[in-house]
C-alpha cells in the first residue's frame, strides 16, 4: 500500500468531486429535466409554473430537418478530421522528423494555429471569404475573373471545413512527432542494414510502432469533431445559408440561445451526449487502441 | 449664535435655490413633494429644519452602456445625481442589452437579487419578469411623486402597458420607428424617384441592379425582422396585423410572399443569405447599396447625413394598410422593483433616480432627434439633415403599430426568421413559414 492513511487522499479528491458535481453532473441532470418542460427562458421564475410536455421535444427531434443536416455535417466532419487532421499531421511529422535542420521551426509553424483563438481565425477567414471585397475575390478580380460566392449552399460546408481542419493539424502533428521521437534509432539502423529503404521503413516501422499514438489521435479527432462550434459559428452564423452549415454544437446553441427555445436546446444537448458516447465506443471498438497486434 | 444660525439658513437657502435651478428632478413642486436633495420641513416651533437623503446604495441597471448612443448622456445623469445626492451611492450595472444580458437579468430576478431600478423592455420579451410580479405600478409611483411621467404622451403609456395584465409599470423615455433609409445621391445619379410606392421601388431595384449597385442591403439570415414586419403590416389592416391568429391569414401570406418577388427581381446582394447585419449595414453606409430598411437607432451610424433620407415603406396596389401606418412605438422604460419600494430610503432614492432619467429635459437629451419622444418636443433644435428627414418621416406616422415579435414568443418569431431564406428562395411557402411560427407560439 502506497498510502496507509486514506483521509489525505479524500481531502484532495473531494474538491474536484464537488466541482464536477456542481458544474457538470448537476447541470447535466437538470438539462435532462428541462427537456421535458416548455421553457421560454433558461431561468425558472418563482411563482411561474412550467408546462410539462413529456416527450414532445424528443418526437420533434426525429422530425426536425435541421437536426438531420447537423448530424450529417458532424459525421462528415469526423471523417474529414481523421483523413485531413490526423492524416496530414502524420505525413508532416514523418517529413519533419526526417530533416536534421529546422525541425524546431516547423514544429512552431505547424503548432501556431492551435494557439490562435478560434474567434480570431473565424474572423480572418470570414474576411477571406467575403463576397464584397474579400481577399479571395480580390485575387480573382485581379486575375480578371468573376467573384465567387464562397459561402453559397454548394460551397459553404467545404469552405468552413478548411479552417476547422487546418487549425488543428498542428495539435496532432506535435503528438505524432513526439511519438516518432520515442521510437528507438537502433530499430531503423537494423532495418537499414537489412536493406530497408526510407519509404519502406515508414510503412513497416514508423506507422506500426505509432499505432497507440495514432489510435489516441483518431479518438480525439472524432470526438473533437462532435464539439466543433466556434469556427463555423463565426464564419456562417445560424447555419447560414439556409441552415445548411449547422453542426450539432451550433444547432444546439442556435436553438437555445438565438431562438430562446431552451427546452428543445436541452433535448439536442442530450442527443449530442448520446451520439458522443456511441461514437467514442464505436471508435474504440474499431481501432482497438489497447490491443497488441 | 444667532449670526451662525442666519449664516446656516442663508447657505441652505442658497443650496436649495441652486438645486432648484440645476437638474430636472428638483423643481419647486418636487421639493414640496420630497423630490429634491434637501428636504425642508416645518417643525413644531415654527423654525425650518433640513434633513438630507437617507444613506443608501441604489442598485441600477439600464441598457445605456457600451455602444449605445446614450451611454454618455446616461453617465452624466448618474454623475450629476451622485453630486446632488451625496448620501446615495449608485451601483450601476448597465450593460448592452443582448440575449446573455436578458438571461442574466432574469436570473437575478429569479434569485431575488433584482436591482432597485431597471430600464428594461415592456413587450413580450419582458413577460417572464412581469409574471413574477416584481415591479411597482406607475400609479403607485405617481401617488408618491406626481412629477413622474407627468408629461408622458398617452401613446407612449399605451404602448408600454404590461402584456401580462395591461397595467403600466414602466416610465417610457424614447421610442423608435422603422423606415426605409435611401442613399438619395444614388437615386439622383440614376435619375430615379424615391420609392414612395411599390412600382417606383421595383423600377429602382431594376436600375440599380443593372448598374451593379445593391438595391437593398439586407442580412436575411441574421436580421430579416423589419422586412417580415413591414411586408405583413402593409398587406393587412391594423386589426389583421396585430391579431394572433391560429392559422396564417391571407394578408400575412400575401405580404410575406413579396420577399420572393423582390429576391427574384434581384433586390438583394448575392450574399444576402450569409452576410451578417453589420456587413449589410456597411454596404449601405459605403454607398454600395441604395436602400436599407432599418430603425431610428440606425440614424446615428450613417456617415453621410447630407445625402441620406428616410422614406415610408412603399405600398403596392391592393395593400390594405392605412396610409401612415408604420412599425413604431415604445418598448422599454424605467421600472422600480418592489424590493426597493419596501425600503423607505431606497424608495425615495429610486423615485429620484427615475425622475432624473425621465424628466422632460433628460428625455429630450436621450431622444436627440432620433426615434420617437415620449414628451412634447419644443420647436427648433440643432439637428442634422438626416435627423430632420427622420423627424419628418416620424410626423407622417399616423398609425403606429408594434412589431410582430412584440406579440409573439421569441421562439416563434425566430422560427420564422430562420425560414426567411427558404421563403425568399422559394424552398418554402410563406404560408408554411407563418403557420410554423403560429404553431410554436400557440405551444409556448
From TrEMBL, chain A:
Keywords: Cell membrane, Membrane, Transmembrane, Transmembrane helix, Transport
CDD domains recorded: TM_PBP2 (cd06261)
TM stretches of this protein: 7-29, 75-96, 108-129, 155-181, 202-226, 268-287
The UniProt record lists the keyword Cell wall biogenesis/degradation: no
SUPFAM superfamilies (UniProt xref): MetI-like (SSF161098)
Keyword Cell membrane: yes
Sequence similarity: Belongs to the binding-protein-dependent transport system permease family.
One cellular-component annotation, GO: plasma membrane
ABC transmembrane type-1 domain segment(s): 71-283
InterPro entries reported in the protein's UniProt record: ABC_transporter_permease (IPR051393), MetI-like (IPR000515), MetI-like_sf (IPR035906)
Name of the protein described by the UniProt record: Sugar ABC transporter permease
PANTHER family listed in its UniProt record: ABC TRANSPORTER PERMEASE PROTEIN (PTHR30193), INNER MEMBRANE ABC TRANSPORTER PERMEASE PROTEIN YCJO (PTHR30193:SF37)
Location in the cell: Cell membrane
Membrane topology: Multi-pass membrane protein
Domain of life: Bacteria
GO biological process per UniProt: transmembrane transport
Automatic annotation (TrEMBL), chain B:
Positions of region (Disordered): 25-53
Keywords of this entry: Cell membrane, Lipoprotein, Membrane, Palmitate, Signal
Composition bias type Low complexity, residue spans: 28-44
Pfam families per the UniProt record, alphabetical: SBP_bac_1
Span of the signal peptide: 1-22
Database matches in Gene3D superfamilies: Periplasmic binding protein-like II
Name of protein: Extracellular solute-binding protein
Native source species: Velocimicrobium porci
Lineage: Bacteria, Bacillati, Bacillota, Clostridia, Lachnospirales
